[in-house]
Design a protein that fits this description.
The chain is an alpha+beta fold. The chain has a single domain, classed as STM4215-like. It has 2 helices and 8 strands. The strands form 2 sheets. Strands 2, 3, 4, 5, 6 and 7 form a 6-stranded mixed sheet that branches. A hairpin with an 8-residue loop joins strand 6 and strand 7. The chain is elongated.
Length: 138
Amino acid sequence: MPAIIWPDIEAEFIAHMAPALQARTEPYAADVAVRNRVPDERGDAWPPSGRLVVVRDDGGPTTPDVRATARLGVQVWAASEAEASDLANLVMALTGGWRSPTVRQSNPSRPFSATEESGRPKQYFTAELMIRGRALPA
């Protein structure tokens, strides 16, 4: 198996999703922060809109060539349960349509409610992406 450099799929998700959401006209897509970390209530500022998308790369298997499956966990918060559901469904749809030189295929699951003890309305979904790395130069 060749030595492969894998892309930073969290950074690529953020670079794709933030402008994709900004381009949308739905009111629940406005002022959404897209990050790879949940804000620390004591330090990092929570977005004023209450709308936040957080992506986490959960790894995944590789193939003998330059492809791999990247498993993502995506958390979506908003001001209400209905808004969180709408935003999560939009993010899921945008994830499913994501294609790039790195992302060859995306298969997201449907989001579900995952509100925690903080009480902030939250949805969660996963996605499996077929990604392409690049061979490590000799």
